[in-house]
Amino acid sequence: MYWVAGIFAAVLVAFSNRYGYHRDELYFLAAGRHPAWGYADQPPFTPLVARAMSAIDPESLPLLRTPAVLAATLVVVCAGLMAREFGGGRAAQALAAAAVAGAALVQGAGHLLSTAVFDLAAWSLLGLLVLRLLRDAAGDGPFVESADEVMAPESSVGAATDRRPDPRWWLAIGLVAGLGLLNKSLLIFPATALVIALLVVGPRKVLATRYLPASVGLATLLWLPYLWWQAHNGWPQWDVGRAIAGGSSGTSDSPIMFVLLQFGLMGPLLTPLWIYGLWRLWRESRYRAFPVAYGLLFVVFLLTGGKAYYLGGMYPILLAAGAVPLAARLGRRPGRWAAVGAVVTVNAIGSAVLFLPVLPVSALPESPVLAVNYDAGETIGWPEFVRRIGAVRADLGPDVAVFTANYGEAGAIERFGAPYDLPTPHSGHNAYWWWGPPPDTATEVLTVGIERDQLAELCASVEPAGHLDNGLGIDNDEQGEPLFVCRELRAPWRELWPRAQHLG
Fold it and tell me: How much is the pTM?
């Protein structure tokens, strides 16, 4: 499995410098320059990672993405180790790792510095630790016995089922959960779902230990600084969550799309394997908590308007669970292994074409990539957008402020604006609002991405100044967005600023 992880990491590194920064990466860099225990839309972990990478080399996109590559590679390794926990040998471990390495979500997340990739890594580590706890609880009976017996019967573990699990695993679980919550609050859902599932279907004896409340206390202690920041600032994360559920994000999904995309997160060719894994886990009582947790999370995210990838952390476990009995059935039949290997390889290549910057930019408008992978379009055109903003700024007075519609535009100006003498931008979007308004001396404002009718409350004079154009024919969120010069402010910035805030 380690050679699979090595190839996977090498591929991500090879493509890490193609296209350009994602809007979220630009935002993380900006947030890292304003260190805090929390932000309106996220905990502090990923911005701090961005700050650390920028401190080493602020110009290097591959360096910025290195932690993402490492986190995604950890997911691949965890898949192989989970297969080992299920009793799989080297072949099963390699199959599980290869399936996860070729998965669309894992490749796409591993290509970008984002909260999503660290969330996947935290889920995978938690799954591995819980498997260790459950395996101890049920003894050392194998998940598979032979190519003819895919699932070990309950009786196969005999008296070993009476062995008590080592409860100290809960402390490791609490540590991973706490660190994961400092990256993305979403992790509270799988952690809670697993505990509920263990209460409902067992084995309940893993919960009968003082180490469980100690684990919860450790996780809460690590998460507490972010909770304090949220409470001190009016819990803006709730407003962001409601906005995402209402469709404000470019990756928001309707209920029907949430369901359908579950069959594409890992790649459609891997769907039979994870469904098989889900079924095998259900048949084995000691692991039944995982399919129950999957069902709970599916319903919760579906009903609350969650994004399809929110459920993505469960799939490495399901793929590993399917890989072990499948490898046992394949046995030493090279022909069957070749057929399975071909399916995994085709899935990996298809995922790479769609979710890694494989195609040249010039080929994107005629390809299905942008229709399938929204994030690809958000990595293109930022330097050209900023160049156009700089050209407009050059004709304005020395005290002009730049006010953008969203954090991507503002982050791009911070990253690429120095050669054009652009000032530090301002925005009312998410964390940028907390970083404050322009000075009251800035009575001339260059606005980016804000429609004319929205500017009526800001200033009395609005003059068109062109549009953003990446010059590549790529239809992303910024293409064609308007530029205006806004003069004669209706009030000082300190009075206008409360109305400028928008979350989503």
Answer: 0.91
Per residue, the 3-state secondary structure of 452-472, as one string, reads HHHHHHCEEEEEEEEECCCCC
Q: The tokens of 180 are what?
A: 């994961």
First to last CA, the chain: 39
The model's pLDDT over 391-403, given as tens digits with 9 standing for 90+, comes to 999 988 788 999 9
Q: Which of 392, 375, 504 shows the shortest CA–CA distance to 444?
A: 392
Residue-wise pLDDT tens digits, 190-237: 999 999 999 999 899 999 999 999 999 999 999 999 999 999 999 999
CB 274 within 8 A of CB 280: no
Residue 157 has pLDDT above 90, yes or no: no
Q: In what order do the strands lie in the sheet with 459-467?
A: 426-427, 401-404, 445-448, 482-489, 459-467
**What is the β-pairing status of strands 426-427 and 459-467?**
unpaired
Q: How far apart are CA 216 and CA 177, in angstroms?
A: 9
User: CA 162 → CA 11, 167, 385, distances in Å?
Assistant: 46, 14, 65
DSSP string, 242-273: HHHHTT-STT---HHHHHHHTTTSS-GGGHHH
Q: Parallel, antiparallel, or unpaired: how do β-strands 445-448 and 426-427 relate?
A: unpaired
pLDDT exceeds cutoff 70 at 248:
no
Question: Scanning the structure block, which residue is given the tokens 């239809």?
Answer: 475
